[in-house]
């Protein structure tokens, strides 16, 4: 199953994975991304899924947070603070992000970026959904 693909389990596709599994989180991401009204924005924005939308589909919030953190660490998604609240996070596929937004200023002429090059460091998410403070060692 690919990231941000249509929800499986309908029309003869394989069944939806059990809630709380990484597959369930990715299926929910795909279903919600497919609902993003790209035409409203002139197809200029990548599909954006809000973390609380995932919570409404996948009941295990800890599993959602852990899988999002893993996807972010792997360079497959970007987590964005969208300004709707202190803990409101948007989730965007890095492929879609690169396609619609492009690299940061000053990197237009650079070679193909390596995994995670455009991602700013984002702290891991605690089980209660708040960002973890940086490790001081």
Automatic annotation (TrEMBL):
Residues 95-137 are annotated as: Disordered. Pfam families: Stk19 (PF10494). This is Uncharacterized protein. GO terms for biological process: positive regulation of Ras protein signal transduction. It comes from Strigops habroptila (Kakapo). Belongs to the STK19 family.
């Amino acid at each position: 199953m690919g990231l941000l693909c249509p929800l499986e389990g309908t029309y003869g596709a394989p069944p939806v994975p059990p809630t709380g599994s990484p597959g369930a989180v990715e299926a929910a991401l795909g279903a919600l991304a497919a609902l993003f009204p790209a035409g409203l924005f002139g197809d200029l924005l990548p599909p954006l899924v809000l973390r609380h939308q995932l919570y409404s589909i996948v009941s295990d919030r800890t599993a959602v947070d852990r899988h999002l953190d893993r996807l972010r660490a792997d360079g497959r998604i970007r987590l964005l603070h969208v300004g709707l609240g202190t803990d409101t996070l948007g989730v965007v596929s890095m492929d879609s992000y690169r396609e619609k937004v492009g690299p940061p200023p000053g990197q237009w002429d650079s070679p193909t970026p390596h995994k995670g090059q455009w991602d700013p460091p984002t702290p891991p998410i605690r089980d209660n959904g708040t960002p973890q403070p940086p490790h001081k060692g």
